[in-house]
Amino acid sequence: MKSTNTNSLENNVFYLSLAISFLLHAVVIGLFSFSRINVIKKNLKQIEVTYKQIKLKKIIQAEEVQHKTKVVKNVEESKKLKLLSKDEASLPFMGKKNIKDISKLTGKLNLDKKQTPHINPVDISKQIYIPKLGSEKITNPKYLSYKENVRQKILNQAYRYIDHPDFDSAEISLAFVMNSQGALKEVKIISDKSKGSEFMKNIALRCIKEAAPYGIFPPDLNYPELPYNITIVFEVKK
């Protein structure tokens, strides 16, 4: 009987010890896992803070670069405005002829409003036009293009006189001859087909002469010279 009680007591003590050992191990493992979780969380927070700081630094640097760029542009623009605002000589090319490349001009540009040239409005009551030129019956496309260029040159020259105070309505017919180099050989007014003042007749003659030379004949046009008939119509609406 005593032996049975002893064995039972020993078993109880064994199981109790086993339970206590299991609890202790569970507590130790739990504490260890909890501490590791805290460490991981701290590391994650530190990484996140570091990332945010790096991102913030990049944003600040980008803003500083953008600000510096704006400052430099503003300084350059202010320098340009200062240069343009100074009292300088007026346009150096005014009155000069045959200037094709304004980058070769010397001097400085004056933008003072008081010295800005006055631009006259276009007077739509005055017009000049030239019907198609009459000449030999040549259908060569290059020749037709050349003939149109001749007409346009004369018309451009005529418009230089449109603002003259003596400009008046007229219809002047002329005949002229040019050689293969485009040089004018002769020109005359066809009196019986013209009407207008002597002044306007003189203007018509000057337009033909001043528009020359007209350019070399096209390669396919093998003529030493060509005659042309032209009518310049000056119109003033009253």
What keyword list fits this structure?
alpha+beta, single chain, four-stranded antiparallel sheet, 49% helix, Fusion Protein Consisting Of Minor Coat Protein, Glycine Rich Linker, Tola, And A His Tag, Chain: A, Domain 2, 2 domains, 238 residues
Plain-language structure description:
With 238 residues, the chain is an alpha+beta fold. It contains 3 helices and 4 strands. The chain folds into 2 domains: 1-119, no CATH class; 121-236, Fusion Protein Consisting Of Minor Coat Protein, Glycine Rich Linker, Tola, And A His Tag, Chain: A, Domain 2 (2-Layer Sandwich). The protein has a 4-stranded antiparallel β-sheet with strand order 1-4-2-3, covered by helices on one side.
Query: How does the major sheet shape up?
Result: 4 strands, antiparallel
Computed structural class: alpha+beta
Q: Which regions are unreliable across 5 or more consecutive residues at pLDDT < 50? A: 84-119
Q: What's the end-to-end separation, in Å?
A: 152 Å
Question: What's the Cα radius of gyration?
Answer: 50 Å
Shape: rod-shaped
Strand content: 5-15%
Number of strands: 4
**Helix proportion of residues, in percent?**
40-55%
Q: What oligomeric state do the depicted chains represent? A: single chain
Mean pLDDT: 75
Number of contiguous helices: 3
Total domain units: 2
Strand order of the largest sheet: 1-4-2-3
Q: What is the string of helix and strand elements?
A: HEHEEHE
